[in-house]
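pasting for the record
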Amino acid sequence: MSAGGRRAAFFDVDETLTTVVSMLGFLRFDLAARGLPDSAYDEAMARLAEARANGRREEANLLYYRNYAGRPEAELAALGREWFARELAGGSLFHPRALAAFHGHRRQGHLTVLVSGSFPPCLDPIGRHLGADLVICARPTVADGVHTGELPHPMIGRYKAQALAEAARTHGLDLGRSWAYGDHISDLPLLESVGHPVVVANADHTLVEQARSRNWTCWADTPAALPA
């Protein structure tokens, strides 16, 4: 933390800023673009669901990226742009309140940061559209322009807190005067890292209870209010 440094606003993306889970939507889009049947998506989801059901959220996150082993980075980036354009055209990609908060922070000159377990094909188009200053996300291993299917570490849970600390050092941020927005209990380390944590209206019950017990801003309890 850099006392007296610049303020920042860190936003989880999937189901915090957006109404969709970008990783899953992109996976379905990619499989369909390759001409694979719906059953291919169902099988991939079953593998991920099994890992999540056993409480292995980080393992499920790592497992997801194996779907892209052998795929050119440029190809996935192009598909990501196509996926985003389709989602945006649907007209309901962003949660209005979170989007308003994001733009409010931009107007105030705060560094705006997306922090997500998703990866660049999904997040780079979102970041460009929003004008985000920084995107912190999963960075799958790429060798000679091709995804290997490996991920050094997920960008969820404690890794988000570590990334915020690194961003603070790099950009001279004062985390104690900064904001973070999240919707899932795995965002708890992210929210604990800043002085102004915000739990969004559609957050899971466990995170809402944490917010209430800690006197954090919880949109479920302040339906008409927007953060300063």
